[in-house]
Amino acid sequence: MGAVPVQDAIDDLAPRAFHWRLLALVGAIILLDGFDIQLAAFAGPAILADWKLGSAALAPVMAASLAGMAFGTSIGGRIGDRFGRRPALIGAVVWFGATAMLTALCRDVTSLTALRFITGLGLGAAVPNATALIAEWMPARARNYAVTVISVGVPCGGIIGAAIASWLIPAYGWPAAFLLGGALPLLLSLVMLRALPESPILLAQRGAPAPRIASLIARAGGTATGPFLPPPVVAESGRVFGPALRRSTIGMGIAFFASLMAVYALLSWVPVLLSKAGFPMDAAIRGSMILNLAGVATSFLLTWIVLRVGSRVTIVATAIAGMAALAFWAMLLHTPGTSPLAILAGVALTGATVLSLQVMLLALSAHVFPVECRSAGIGYSISIGRLGAILSAFGAGVLLGLPQGTLLFFAMIGTALVALAGGVMLVDRHMPPRHAPPAPNKELAPNDA
């Protein structure tokens, strides 16, 4: 019997219980990651009251968390490519779980800032390895939807975390939120040690014995026994800036930078914008939930569209729709007498477009970067994006303090969407439409979908 391409052995599988259990396990990891990312924001008011500080005192804490995640995505991605998705992902979960629990012991801003940076390293390392593992295990027919589930895990974790923290912190104090946010990942890591499989595609690329790969594929319902051919090497020495990937890597960096700048500007400042428009505080906070929910729901619809028309057309068209949604929402905010429901409709349209762009970019990154540098490539893209998030955290606040600051804020996000579309146009390894004929070599041949 001839050698079997390991990618074909995975793609030919029918999605079954093994795949859904794996997706549920990795999805739970990212849910907890999303919960822990926003822990400082949930606990912030109680910390300020407990330590008798002004709100500006938490600025370095928030920045440190973002900086830690930026380093963590890059470092964690490289660890995943070198040592495996499974150990990198388990290590990341143990890391952010343990350090989150230690944060409950903090008694000043300095220690809190340091621990949020350290926790951010683990939080950042989880996402690229989770995305790569799911992309490499899921059959072709379910892959994009599965990556979308992973992509929306972070905002869903934030939504669930907000609901839990809203009663936990008033009842038991802010340290309880960090204790819970740390204990749950540590408990989940015990399940991961038993149930989380390594990527068979990565094992084939690293020359693992055929029986080991065959036993993994058999768990997923496959019958291939090997020998297995790894995907062709695209990135020599695993370099994301090598000749074959340079253009796409630069484009992904630009797109992620612009996307996370826009996303974090909205996530950070929507309650403030709604409060200025006359919304009471509870309604302003619900506006943030509407923003997130609209983005999550639309992401699945756009994944369906990507499969039919390709990633380039879908992402660029969504960016253009995002600019229109921003203009519509800005007009409503600046029109006297506009009803609150109309303003919230503008929030929903903005979330449906701008937030879903980040989900599609993460799915695209899993396609752009080949197995030998997939975690590193995804990690690089997200790390560059974190820089955009850090910039937006400070830049948006400065703009809103200026005359006509609200219009400048919307102009900043609109400019980011223009840059995002430009970065996506630069990428030359897009996901093709489902009806397109397959390229002669799926790892080597880019397409212009």
TrEMBL record:
<dbReference type="InterPro" id="IPR011701">
    <property type="entry name" value="MFS"/>
</dbReference>
<feature type="transmembrane region" description="Helical">
    <location>
        <begin position="314"/>
        <end position="335"/>
    </location>
</feature>
<dbReference type="GO" id="GO:0046943">
    <property type="term" value="F:carboxylic acid transmembrane transporter activity"/>
</dbReference>
<protein>
    <submittedName>
        <fullName>MFS transporter, AAHS family, 4-hydroxybenzoate transporter</fullName>
    </submittedName>
</protein>
<feature type="transmembrane region" description="Helical">
    <location>
        <begin position="145"/>
        <end position="169"/>
    </location>
</feature>
<dbReference type="InterPro" id="IPR005829">
    <property type="entry name" value="Sugar_transporter_CS"/>
</dbReference>
<feature type="transmembrane region" description="Helical">
    <location>
        <begin position="53"/>
        <end position="75"/>
    </location>
</feature>
<feature type="transmembrane region" description="Helical">
    <location>
        <begin position="407"/>
        <end position="427"/>
    </location>
</feature>
<dbReference type="GO" id="GO:0005886">
    <property type="term" value="C:plasma membrane"/>
</dbReference>
<feature type="transmembrane region" description="Helical">
    <location>
        <begin position="22"/>
        <end position="47"/>
    </location>
</feature>
<feature type="transmembrane region" description="Helical">
    <location>
        <begin position="87"/>
        <end position="105"/>
    </location>
</feature>
<dbReference type="InterPro" id="IPR036259">
    <property type="entry name" value="MFS_trans_sf"/>
</dbReference>
<feature type="transmembrane region" description="Helical">
    <location>
        <begin position="249"/>
        <end position="269"/>
    </location>
</feature>
<feature type="transmembrane region" description="Helical">
    <location>
        <begin position="289"/>
        <end position="307"/>
    </location>
</feature>
<keyword id="KW-0812">Transmembrane</keyword>
<dbReference type="InterPro" id="IPR020846">
    <property type="entry name" value="MFS_dom"/>
</dbReference>
<feature type="transmembrane region" description="Helical">
    <location>
        <begin position="175"/>
        <end position="196"/>
    </location>
</feature>
<keyword id="KW-0472">Membrane</keyword>
<feature type="transmembrane region" description="Helical">
    <location>
        <begin position="341"/>
        <end position="366"/>
    </location>
</feature>
<feature type="transmembrane region" description="Helical">
    <location>
        <begin position="117"/>
        <end position="138"/>
    </location>
</feature>
<keyword id="KW-1133">Transmembrane helix</keyword>
<feature type="domain" description="Major facilitator superfamily (MFS) profile">
    <location>
        <begin position="22"/>
        <end position="431"/>
    </location>
</feature>
<dbReference type="Pfam" id="PF07690">
    <property type="entry name" value="MFS_1"/>
</dbReference>
<feature type="transmembrane region" description="Helical">
    <location>
        <begin position="378"/>
        <end position="401"/>
    </location>
</feature>
